Amino acid sequence: xxxxxxxxxxxxxxxVGISFFILGxxxxxxxxxxxTASMYFNNRLNTAEWSNGTVTAPKEYYFxxxxxxxxxxxxxxxxxxxxxxxxxxxxxxRIAGSLVFMLILFxxxxxxxxxxxxxxxxxxxxxxxIWFINSFGAVLQxxxxxxxxxxxxxxxxxxxxxxxxxxxxxxxxxxxxxxxETDEETAALGYFITPCVGTLVTLFSYLLLPKLEFARFxxxxxxxxxxxxxxxxxxxxxxxxxxxxxxxxxxxSVPNGTPSNPECDGSKKAFISIDAENAKQEKSSVLEVFxxxxxxxxxxxxxxxxxxxxFPAVTVDxxxxxxxxxxxxxxxxxxxxxxxxxxxxGRFVTTWLRWPxxxxxxxxxxxxxxxxxxPLLMLCNVKGRRFLPVLFxxxxxxxxxxxxxxxxxxxxxxxxxxxxxxxxxxxxxxTAGALMTFFxxxxxxxxxxxxxxxxxIV
Length: 458
What we know:
This protein is an all-alpha fold. It is 69% helix and 1% strand.
């Protein structure tokens, strides 16, 4: 764990911490704003249209399913392309460029609110926008995780806290837009202007970092250390084996057999001794690391698969038992706001409660037991059902199920991601983190794909 170095300047007014909090918030704005606005999109896509003087029946677009799938696939794709893409494109281009393109796409989405068009065209444009905006979001998220990793550990926690609040921020933005008592079109326009402003603030926060002494200290120091390591490697004799024995005779002579300089001999032995020590701490192969964290990899994949299979594709179609004014606020409050707040609470709980332990068999067993939430939510009062009956008609049943569903999701996700690096040697922590990120993305994509089948079964 990286701590603040003694010679490091102070983070004046906590500006670096605030900047990374905003950057964390900005990375998940696309997914959360499109997901929370699903009612707006469904209302626009499921209205009757006139064709040859007759009213045609609304077409089923399965917007929530496609939106979830096309939001999560870019994360999986860019996780796989991580090692190829990132070294070839500068950090500034990846982060600032992604934010600029996200801003343009958010502005396009806001403008489409006022543009009348056929439902098929609107659906196609929206799906393309979702794909590209989440692709840039995936690049942004991966780049910022690498950037914040250069700073002390607490800044990673601040960054992830910003990510955790993104969903709650989007849910409150939707509620404020609905409570404004304006027409639906104006409310939607105001809602989509919010992420435009948020993305601009995120871009400003990133551009501010190089001007802050505390951030410059760690970011420049990391670059200097990389250059030093690269330079040291070039200064080594080409014939010198990497795992030289410090006690061998070769360390006391030069290649032509002439005795080495006694004054340099001690430093050379010290250098080779360090190299031998580093050789003992060589990184394990990806397969070896995977074997050690396979249980945690399975757990994070399974948790996200269960969660994304029904949220929001199924949960967004649950109807309240109390029609009237409450009907308008039921899904924003009891689905999106409740889920995001309880998911965040579950993540925070792990700071003082970590049960079961990483070695316990109860951990994967409890993760698998979350599958019970799939039938429970499908048996709630979901509209447009075909096969299954309704067992839980009252709103309170839905609220209780959603509360436990989202709380357990945040709790087990955070535990899985926390436990994985603890199961490997320190030098393998980076590999473990990369593998867990891949399986996290895999779980999101599997859940999104499964949501199509579950919505049809309902």
